[in-house]
Amino acid sequence: MKRDIVLLFIVTFSITTISIPNYESLSYDEALYINIARNLANNILDFTYQNVYMLYRPPVYVYTISLPIKFLENDLHLFAAKIVSAFFHSLTSILVYIFSYELFKKRTYAFISSLIYFLNPVSFTMATRALTHTEFTFFSLLSLYLFYRGEKTGRNVYIYFSAIASAIAFLTRYVGVILLISKLCYLIYKHRVRLILIKKYYIYSIIFFITTLPWMIVSWKFYDSPIKFLLVAIRVIQKSEYIPLIDSIKSLILASHIYFLIIISLVFLGAIFLRKNELILIYTLTGIVFVLFLKHKELRYITFLTPLLSILIATSLKYIGERFSKILPILLSILILMFSFQYSLEYKERWDNVYRKDVYMLKDLKKEITNITSLGVDPKLYTISGYVFYNVTIYQILENFMGDVVITKKNCQLGYILYKKYLSYNICVSLSSNITFIS
Fold first, then answer.
1. Is the C or the N end of the chain the one with fewer CB within 10 Å?
2. Torsion of CA 151, 155, 156, 159, to 10 degrees
3. Following DSSP, what letter does each residue of 141-164 receive, concatenated?
4. Those residues with Cβ within 8 angstroms of residue 44's Cβ, 6 or more apart along the chain or in another chain
5. What are the tens digits of pLDDT across the range 269-312?
6. Rounded to an integer, what distance in angstroms lies between the CA atom of residue 354 and that of residue 28?
């Protein structure tokens, strides 16, 4: 088994690393995480961007990427952040293998489950991005696995380590609160009223609280409240764009066609065959309901569920092999992996082009305009500009122009075209002042 794990890590980490694009493609959130991490590399309490505390952003991933960033040049910061995601993706692939082997006692289906997770379009794409999803997926699955082991073996130490993993998952993405909700639902289902008499779950709660306490102290220091970081995060989520549930489902079906139907069918069958493992089913169901009823829904939000979906699929394949034909699960596995590979490339390509032209435009602008101390930008470029123009004060242009240089979508009435090679932008330099406009 050790040899399987080493081989699995080498293969998955190598493939994921090679798949990271060799050009700079980063989203608003990725740029923000790197900007904060750059500050943390110099001061571990400087959780800021443009001197504004960003405690509503979960800390674990940002602190993780600040470690390699501390020793690397600026141009390597994005790659280093993405390598961290690739690393945790490989660790999760191994954990899926271990968890599946625990359930099935068969290496073949453990490998199948791990490979299905590894090539899942969402999980694979997020593994090449500088986002929190992959690290959160690892710690949430680790928490679930340790809790499962504790319940199965009766060894409380697993339960207590699960509490630590749950707290780390929560501090990686605040939606990690569903770990507590799903476990509570499971315990109520299993123990009913007797739950209030079981000591180990009180200890679990205390350990969870102690693990999150340092971040609450930081929140108290800078936000004047130990829980304000969470309240601000909720407020930010409430301001996000509303996407109807039916629109999200339609987009998913249109994007994946038969792949979606195969996966849903096998997950449903897996849920039936795995019905004795209530913990896995309750967590999966809780996660699906949670994501579906978020105000702003994106496909990447289900990343943390992809390991369990893979386990459910492998469960279906195992029972199909036992009841019908041993060759049928192999054929279905190959079919799933082929579809997964195809949709992984398509979904990843969409992400690889996120703000790609914007980064190139800003880098060329940086070469042309040197020695600036402030920069005014359109809100969508706020964090990306900070990534390119490090140590420059960045203003969001809402109504008033601020900064030595201004980049905005507003029409440039006076001036001349500076660049023509960017199709999405006409860059104009005002004839009456030193302010630069991009329309």
1. N
2. -50
3. HHHHHHHHHHHHH--HHHHHHHHH
4. 63
5. 766 666 667 888 889 888 888 887 777 778 888 899 999 989 98
6. 9
